[in-house]
């Protein structure tokens, strides 16, 4: 089919080809935007193990949770965890980049939490969005002031 389309395009003048190119670019962009939905960037499927600290737990105990990062994008990540994460939790994710071994630390906030396996130690799938240091500071202030 593509061969037939290309053969028919060869006989067209340059101006018509440029118009077709512009229209195709717009069509591709609209289809790409539809595929992404609200998301600003594509997620890459990965399988990277890492560690997670939950900010609200630091008050009582510094516990690292093992996680498996399943998807990553420019703005966040999706991971699974055997432990409880609550919507809105501020999280500190650390992992090593598989290709270089470089350690990465990302502050993020849980925006969607779904229980995958119920039980004594439930397994959750968490969608987290990257946040800046200012958001982490505000969250810590809220935790500190809640007992007053």
Q: What descriptive keywords fit this protein?
A:
148 residues, alpha+beta, Thrombin, subunit H, 38% strand
Account of the 3D structure:
The protein is α+β, with helices and mostly antiparallel strands. It folds into two domains: 2-36, no CATH class; 44-145, Beta Barrel (Thrombin, subunit H). The protein contains three helices and six strands; from the N terminus they run ααββββββα. A six-stranded antiparallel barrel has the order 1-2-3-6-5-4. The longest helix is centred in the first third of the chain and has 23 residues, at 14-36. It is elongated and about 75 Å long. The protein starts with a helix and ends with a helix. The mean pLDDT is 84.
Please identify, by name, the CATH architecture of the largest domain. Beta Barrel
Calculate the mean pLDDT score and round it.
84
| Tally of discrete structural domains | 2
| CATH topological fold name of the largest domain | Thrombin, subunit H
Q: What is the H/E string?
A: HHEEEEEEH
Residue fraction in strands: 35-45%
Estimated structural class: alpha+beta
Question: How many H/I helical runs?
Answer: 3
Query: First CA to last CA: what distance?
Result: 71 Å
Largest sheet: 6 strands, antiparallel, barrel
Using only C-alpha atoms, the radius of gyration works out to 23 Å
Which sequence of strands runs across the widest sheet? 1-2-3-6-5-4
What portion of residues is helical? 25-40%
Taken from the alpha-carbon principal axes, the silhouette is: elongated
Strand tally, please?
Answer: 6
The H-level CATH homologous superfamily of the largest domain, spelled out, is predicted glycosyltransferase like domains
Uncertain segments: none
CATH class of the largest domain: Mainly Beta
